[in-house]
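Hi there, hope your week has been kind to you so far. Please have a think about how the structure follows from the sequence. I've dropped the whole record in just underneath, so have a look:

_____
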Amino acid sequence: MERKGNILTALIWGTLIGILLWMSFLGWLDIIFGK
């Protein structure tokens, strides 16, 4: 049970971090190529 919870937590954090990285990546592309 505890292990499954840890895996779920890791997935949630991984998704959140991935979204943040993707958003910042798109932001940089917009800054670089948007001019």
About this structure: The first helix runs from residue 2 to 33.
